[in-house]
Predict the structure.
Amino acid sequence: MKRRRLVETLEMALVVEPNVDIVTDNMVAEWGGVPYPQLSVMLVHLKHLALVHQTHHWITKGDPFYGDHLLFQRLYDLPSGEIDPVAEKAVGLGSTANVDVILQTSQCNKLVQGYGMTSTIPQASELIRRSYVVEMSFLKVVSRLVETMKEAGTLTRGLDNMIAGIEDAHEGSIFLLRQRCS
C-alpha cells in the first residue's frame, strides 16, 4: 500500500477550501519580483496561525477551559518559534523586501477574513474546529509552496529540511486537535 502524506488525504480535501492553491498562488504573485516569495507567504501564514491560536487561548471558556487554554498556548507557541527562522531564511536567500510589513499585514488580514473569524466569542468546540481548519490549511499551503519552489528550482536542501521540520511539527498540532475533538 502506498503511503500518503497528510496533505494528500481525503480528510484534507474535506476540511480545506478547494481553491487554496489558487489563493496561495495569488499571494505569491502579490510579492512581485522578490526572490523566494514562497517564504514570504509561509511567514504570513505562520503569523496568522499564531494570531488565531493565541486569540483562542485568550477567549476559551467553559468546560474544559483549562485544558483548552493550555492546548491553544501550545499551538500558538509553535508558529511563534518558527517565524524568526523563516523570516531570516527569506531575507538570507532573498532580500529585506521578503519581509515587507505592509504586505504581510495586508495578507494576514485577508486570511483572518477568509476563515470566517468574527468578533463574537464562539463555543469551545468551534474554537477547536477553527484551529483545526487553519492548521490543515497551513499544511496544504506549505505543500503548494514547496511544489512551486521545486518547479522554479529554488528549493535548496537546507530550505527543504527546514520546511519538512515545520510540517512535521504542525502534523503534531493536528493530532492534538483531533484528540480534543474526539
Notes: Residues 36-181 form a domain with the Ferritin fold (CATH 1.20.1260.10).
